[in-house]
Design brief:
Length: about 200
């Protein structure tokens, strides 16, 4: 089963994904945790390049192609294999990030992005996607508290994150069977419990 986690920057999905990974392992599931952009040696190199704050001049469609290139590499070297071997694959971000960030965030043609991804990914799409729902204002407070160095995308600011958030909301409406929403404004324990319940339901069919 292929499960992806999505949300705007600072939504907590990376922390939650590690906790869910541990919980599934403890319950005896074969599971791997991976992330995007990245997930294999080449794709991690692309990640460094894409998120480098020096690369401010990357053009919007170049950015789309770089994310999709990293994704293709990741799918072909790691995700397909792990799924074939019977693993549950948890991926921190996947194709919906490109639609939300580059499509809705940068204002690029969603249809073209969808078509590109369909062509490149073929049937390697998630069985389940969890959207960690927390809005841009709440997230900004979290980022400030964490006092972390910002990457190129995080530097885009609040209005960009707001557009991305709206993009995710549209994706939930479009794919209600695949994308499930979890209220990520609550405690980590509550978010983990809800996420785990959704995943368990899917596993049990
Ligand atoms: P991360 O902080 O969740 O690891 O993601 C890195 C950044 O890359 C984050 O700001 C979201 C952004 N991103 C896109 O803009 N498009 C994509 O397709 C992906 C996977 C990530």
């Amino acid at each position: 089963m292929f499960i992806t986690f999505e949300g705007i920057d600072g939504s907590g999905k990376s922390t939650i994904s590690k906790l869910i990974f541990d919980k599934l392992q403890k319950e005896g599931h074969k599971v791997i945790l991976t992330r995007e952009p990245g997930g294999d040696v080449i794709a991690e190199k692309l990640r460094k390049f894409i998120l480098d704050t020096d690369n401010k001049d990357i053009k919007p469609w170049t950015e789309v192609l770089l994310y999709i290139a990293a994704r293709k590499q990741h799918v072909d070297t790691k995700i397909k294999k792990a799924l074939c071997e019977g693993n549950i694959v948890i991926c921190d971000r996947f194709m919906d990030s490109t639609t939300a960030y580059q499509g809705f965030g940068r204002g690029l043609d969603i249809y073209k992005i969808d078509e590109l991804q369909k062509y490149i990914l073929e049937d390697n799409i998630p069985d389940l996607t969890i959207f960690f729902d927390i809005n841009a204002d709440q997230v900004l407070t979290r980022i400030k508290k964490r006092n972390e160095t910002k990457d190129r995308l995080e530097e885009e600011g609040i209005s960009f994150q707001k557009n991305v958030y709206q993009g995710y909301k549209k994706l939930i409406e479009k794919y209600p069977d695949r994308i499930k929403r979890v209220d990520a404004t609550r405690s980590i324990d509550q978010v983990v419990n809800d996420t785990f319940e959704i995943i368990n339901k899917k596993i049990k069919g």
